[in-house]
């Protein structure tokens, strides 16, 4: 189906109809709204509304994540890969009407979590305090005690280890007048000494000053009871706090029934925030509401009919101005070509002047991917993964397209793997000879074994590359013919095709035997192609010398450029050999011990790593061949993708696919 024609639309409605109209357009998911910039109209500012909706969305997300944390929500193995559930539009409306009620549930859950965190903080404080009292466990008076009727007491710590005599000597050294001091060491360790000092009340101030000079620290906050009893109080408080946490967790668990509803609420507020963000594109007067944008031409009249019959509104359709406006591009393809749309979009979406490259590129992408990975066992795993995603997990949207890409890449990998005899490398021959007593290993290759025929496969890779390049030139030929540039269509493609064909015939002789008659024909074709390039490449110049110079320069660029392009397809062989060699080494290592269980372990671990590494390399290099070699022949890119205004959801999909989506 490729590129879909668009129409420009303008809608004027009564202001009172604006909310209902925007809800309808979001439900249809068929229009892209553009910014209205007329100065005489009033623009909307929805920043505050969007901020409030996003805040509610975040609240809903926090709430259902807490339910996941505290509730035993059982999920199947496959559900862990796809967390999206289907609902119909009527259920969507019913749940959306309960949004405020569900938001209150979120607040209650978050309030309970806040109380839990407060108690956890208090428990942490009590544990810290309890740890502080441990060195003082032998003290039988409160640490807050400061004096009796006749004595002053100082209870505290030194940041070093001291004995009783050392402390008394230090006091005597610093202040000889303090000769009535008594010291009791409660506990001591390498970096801490807990001590109690007593003296006559008349010397209290002097002793306190002396102790501070010695680095003595008096605790600021202590319990009004002996440390052992205070520690018991702390442990009791910890136990009570933990019991209270369990009660609050049970309170949260009671909200487990709202789990799906809160996930829906997150999606709902996401869509609402999207809607009010889009509303900023609209404009209004005191009585009317005005929006404009683009819509697929095939449904334009149907949407116009429904809007004008369901709303107090008028809708006008017109053809886009491709010369002056940045018109978006809508691409629709069957699953085979749709799977590689993400590859094209990573490079650049097609412009309005481009043809959609995906239908042609998809064939080469899948073929090259399979040729590079080239192991039928790996391909089967990809096919199984894709089928599970499509039919069991029921992925939608871009995930479905990715699953399609994996499916076709897997099928191609099985095809090439069967041709080359690769089924998890040479696992079958290895098992046959190492464990089943076969004298000779069976040859499973339908076509050829790349290990034994690398030059032959290299030539085929160059051939596949030339076909790929010619497909790009054919696309360019089509585009120039479409634009009625008939001279350019001939001059920019036909001479290059003739030159490359001649070059390929002559170049093959460097790798293998070529019949002299065939080589002679190749030389003649090469000469004709070179002459055509010299005659046509400089046609834009106005004088003979300019035309000749441009032609020779064009010949040099064509020869060097296409030589580099063709050689780059040697990566098809390289990646194919890498996959096979590593797989064979894994099987060899597994079979060395002669133990089937050891072989199974090495097989599973080794091939898991091999397929993971080579999938990445294959994907990257296959994409590169499209970007550098294929797209460079015809593709401009720099387009703007058609982005419809629709209900966006992560955890739910609407069963009733609207007829315009």
3D architecture notes:
The structure is a single chain. This protein starts with a strand and ends in a 7-residue tail after the last strand. It is extended and about 125 Å long. The protein has 22 helices and 13 strands. It is an alpha+beta fold. A hairpin with a 2-residue loop joins strand 7 and strand 8. 32% of the residues are buried. The mean pLDDT is 90. Strands 2, 3, 4, 9, 10 and 11 form a 6-stranded antiparallel beta sheet that branches.
Attribute tags:
661 residues, 13 strands, 59% helix, alpha+beta, six-stranded antiparallel sheet
What is the structural class? alpha+beta
Q: How big is the Rg?
A: 39 Å
Shape: extended
Number of helices: 22
- Characterize the largest beta sheet: strand count, sense, and whether it forms a barrel: 6 strands, antiparallel
Rounded mean pLDDT score: 90
Provide the β-strand percentage band: 5-15%
Q: Give the % helix.
A: 55-70%
What is the rounded distance between the termini? 15 Å
Number of DSSP-assigned strands: 13
* Poorly predicted sequence stretches spanning 5 or more consecutive residues: none
Chain-wise SSE layout:
Blueprint lengths: L1 E3 L1 E9 L3 H11 L3 E3 L7 E2 L3 H24 L14 E3 L1 H9 L1 H35 L17 E8 L5 H11 L7 E8 L2 E9 L3 H10 L13 H27 L5 H21 L3 E2 L3 E9 H14 L2 E6 L11 E3 L2 H4 L2 H7 L10 H16 L2 H17 L4 H24 L6 H8 L19 H29 L3 H6 L2 H15 L7 H22 L6 H25 L1 H22 L4 H35 L21 E3 L7
Parallel strand pairs: 5-13
Antiparallel strand pairs: 1-12, 2-10, 2-11, 3-10, 4-9, 6-8, 7-8, 9-10
